[in-house]
Every structure is written in structure tokens, then in C-alpha cells.
Amino acid sequence: DVDTNTDIGQVTFAANATETQNKSFLYTVTDNDIALELDKLFTLGIRDPVEVSIAEPSKMNITVVDDDDVTVDFQFNAYNYSEDHSTVGNIILLLSNPIAQSLSVVVEGGPGQQPDTVIISGVQVSNTVIFTPGQMPVTLPDFDITNDITALETDEIYQ
Fold it and tell me: Do residues 8 and 29 lie in contact, with contact meaning Cβ atoms separated by under 8 Å?
């Protein structure tokens, strides 16, 4: 994608000047909020002078460094499922900004330390999630939970 102004225009110096003349121009770079982009490289050059020659260096390089950050978050900070549901699903990960190249994130967790009164129904989860350019939300694969048919059990918490 091009997010710069490529039409720079023409610089004109006054005729018969006896002092050094400095001229400047505006080269606009638009922040497109797309993270993980490669830096953009441009070359500016002087060409087609009228009645003068071009000194060296006649070209310069410009590097536009991508400064857009990206964060990954869960859509919600808590999800609740009953044991008789048999699977945990529809857990969604979101990116804060679009990305220009693939990004992989490992999501893992499990029952961890539970109170003695908890019969563990779920499993340890470890998934690698891959976001592709243009893809903002990703849904984690479902994982199984077991209905242990124990009444009045303490809630299990997975972190």
C-alpha cells in the first residue's frame, strides 16, 4: 500500500541571486495504523535542471519506519460455561490494529490450583493462534469439558 504523497512538485530559485538560497518542500507521510509493516524506503532526486548542472549527491534516501503497535486481547475478560455444555467455545481474540504480515500467539491455560472441593472438568489448553493480514478477530478452537455430575461443586477457574 502507498501511504505517501509522491507528487512533490518543482522548486524554483530566484534569478541573479548573490547569496545561497535554501528551499524546502513538504513530503507527507500518512499514518495508516497498520502494524508489523516493513519499513518503507524512498529515494528523492534532483532532475531536469534548467541552465545549471546537478551537484553530488543528487539523490537522497528516506526511510519511513513503521511505528504502529499491536496488542492482542480477549474479547471478554471472563467466560462462563456449565459442565453440561460439554465444550468451551466462542472465545475470541482481538488485535488492536490491522497487521501487514502474519502474527502467531500462543494461548495456554488450564485448571491450575483448584480448591479441594473442585472436581476438575476441563483440560490443559495450549493453542497457537495465527492472525493473517486483514484478520482482526480469531476464535479459539473449542475444547472439551466433562460433566462430572457432582452437585453443589465449587466453580472451576481456568487461567
Answer: no
| DSSP 8-state code for residue 35 | B
Report residue 98: phi and psi, to 5°. Answer: -60, 155
| Residue 47 banded pLDDT, cuts 50, 70, 90 | confident
Cell of 1: 500500500
According to DSSP, the residues that pair with 62 across neighbouring strands are 42
User: Taking residues 19-38, what's their average pLDDT?
Assistant: 76
Asked whether residue 84 carries a pLDDT value surpassing 60, the answer given is yes
Whether 72 contacts 119, CB under 8 Å: no
Give Cα 6 to chain centroid, integer Å: 26
Which has the closest alpha carbon to 42: 6, 1, 10? Answer: 6
> What is the C-alpha to C-alpha distance for residues 142 and 120, in angstroms, rounded to an integer?
17
pTM: 0.58
Q: 85 — phi, psi (to 5°)?
A: -70, -30
Phi/psi at 113 (nearest 5 deg)?
A: -80, 120
Half-sphere exposure at residue 35, Cβ-oriented, CA atoms within 13 angstroms: 15
